[in-house]
Amino acid sequence: MASTEIVEALQGLEDASATQQDKPAGYKKLLDQILALGSASEDFSANLKAFIDSILSDNLGIVAARPLLGAVVESIKTISDPDIKIYAGTTALRSLEPRVVSFEEQDAQLREMLADAYTVQEEYIEAAKVLQGIQLESSQRRIPDDHKVATWIRICRLYLEEDDTLSAETYLNRAKNLRHKVDNPELILGFQLSEARIMDASRKFLEASHAYHSFSFSTVLDEEERTRALSSAIICAVLAPAGPQRSRALAKIYKDERAPQVAEYGILEKMFLDRLLSPDEVTRFSQNLAPHHMAKTADGSTVLAKAVIEHNLLSVSKLYNNIGVDELATLLGLDAQKAEGYAARMLEQGRVSGSIDQIDGLILFDGVEPSAEQGGSGQRRNVTGGGLRKWDARVQGVAEELERVASMIQQQQPV
Which pLDDT score, from 0 to 100, does residue 407 have? Predict the structure, then answer.
């Protein structure tokens, strides 16, 4: 509850006998008095709320109230304790809510200040939500396109901090609509970086790797951030589906003279040279990965495990002309059925060239390097794996037809 002294002062200012010309100066003097008591005072938030409610009442005009409310916002910004700042800011927002249309500028300033405080506390979702309340499509004030895009990108990046890619992408798409109107290099870079992080989280690893590698050359970023971008490019390239497109991405990064400086260079080199990866190497590499890189896929394996299995299978195809399914399973650390399934899928998608002999339990590699058109998009004009499945279906059809004919003969000529 507000202190008696402040309540009495506010009642005096609200009195009908007080002249309108004297009220702004009286409110300003009272605000200075509230601030003089300090934010640590038990009555500070209550005094501030009472003050805001008073200046938003009908006894003071909008024109006079706006600079006073702006002064309140500036006073809250000076509070050093984030908890008190958040409490005072949310209290002010609640008081302002019924008349926010008349005070959109002050409302936006309060929300940006609150977002800063929540970010300091690492409460990123709360920071994003409070920024969402800013009226960016307003008829009351003109808002530059740069400011709109900056706000949407900030909300996007806050959601990305909590791995909420769905919400992040919503605000990135809003920024995308005004992307062509923005010339600020830092804003453009922030947009591109957010887009890359969303592609990364959405498992579009090849596109993300290309974007991260481009950022690593940006002069807007400092040296540490460029190194981090290069590291992210390697991680995404490693996690991308094995095939010609990934091989090109690995080659591009491997030839970068800065690559040996990052911790992930060892696994990059082995993948580029088509060498088999050992479990120990994979374990060391996994220590630097984000949680979504270790997420489970539809078949129960992690994103990393699937990428390693596919890479090792691709490496086997370049080491051997043929290999037994059981031997392949041993090399991949899988059972025979799963190993054959991985091989069939990569053959069907054109990422490995060869065929499967199910009768002898062999996988035959023809040594032909699949082209990017065949292997990267999941489509191929002459798909060996697809041919195998068609062959299986035809064999099954013949067997079923033979069984039907045998049943007819038995019905007509019983023994």
Answer: 81
What pTM does this model have?
Answer: 0.70
Rounded Cα–Cα distance for residues 131 and 151 (Å): 7
Distance CA 59, CA 193 (A): 49
Cα–Cα distance measured from residue 26 to residue 30, given in angstroms and rounded to the nearest whole number: 6
Phi, psi of 170 (to 5 degrees): -60, -45
Number of H helices, E strands in the chain: 20, 3
Tell me the residue type at 76. I
Q: Which residues of the chain have pLDDT under 70?
A: 1-2, 15-22, 37-42, 58-60, 367-391, 393, 415
Nearest to 349, CA basis, from 246, 196, 259: 246
234: nearest Cα among 218, 250, 245: 250
pLDDT of residue 371: 54
Cα separation, 322 vs 327, in Å, equals 10
- Measured CA distances, 208 to 203, 236, 286, 316 (Å): 8, 7, 18, 27
CB 64 within 8 A of CB 24: yes
Query: What does the alpha-carbon distance between residue 325 and residue 335 come to, in Å, rounded to a whole number?
Result: 9
Is 160 in contact with 197 (CB distance < 8 Å)?
yes
What is residue 126's three-state secondary structure?
Answer: helix
pLDDT at 384: 46
Handedness of CA 134, 139, 141, 142 (dihedral sign): positive
Model pLDDT for residues 197-228, shown as the tens digit of each residue: 999 988 899 999 999 999 899 888 888 999 99
What is the distance between the alpha carbons of residues 378 and 304, in angstroms, rounded to a whole number? 20
Q: Supply 142's token pair.
A: 């003109």
The per-residue pLDDT for 170 is 93
Distance between CA atoms of 128 and 164, rounded to whole angstroms?
11
Cα(302)–Cα(298) distance, rounded to whole angstroms? 9
**Nearest 5°: phi and psi at 255?**
-80, -10
For 380, residues 6+ apart whose C-beta sits below 8 A from its C-beta are 348, 349, 350, 370, 374, 386
> Is the CB of residue 46 less than 8 Å from the CB of residue 2?
yes
